[in-house]
Write a structure and sequence with these properties.
The protein is mostly helical. It has one domain (about 5-110). The protein contains three helices and no strands. The chain starts with 6 loop residues before the first helix and ends in a 6-residue tail after the last helix.
Length: about 110
């Protein structure tokens, strides 16, 4: 089975090509500038993608800890989405339970809450 380059590897390769191979050969200063800008944009996208992946892994770890889960699928974004949904459901159940308890306490005190 052949390994395919990741999106980040492709972005880095194109940025490097634009910066080190294409830009130096261009005679038109405007075109050279645009090639360097494109290379820099790709490097920014790569950095942001790497940061997003790290942030998603950190968020998954926090959600796993909060929910006492052990989600560790390859697709981190899916894990975060599912764990976030589970946390929201858990919070919603807790709010409903607290409201029921509050209503019981109000009734026990003989008042209608006014």
């Amino acid at each position: 089975m052949q390994d395919h380059p990741t999106s980040l590897e492709l972005i880095h390769a194109v940025a490097q090509f634009l910066h080190t191979e294409l830009a130096p050969t261009l005679q038109d200063p405007r075109m050279k500038f645009r090639a360097l800008v494109a290379a820099n944009v790709l490097q920014i996208v790569a950095r942001e993608t790497e940061m997003r992946d790290m942030q998603l892994r950190a968020e998954r770890a926090r959600l796993n800890e909060l929910l006492n889960e052990n989600a560790a699928n390859e697709n981190v974004a899916d894990d975060v989405e599912q764990l976030t949904r589970a946390l929201a459901q858990k919070n919603s159940r807790g709010r409903r339970r607290r409201r029921r308890i509050s209503r019981r306490r109000i009734r026990a005190c003989g008042t209608n809450g006014d």
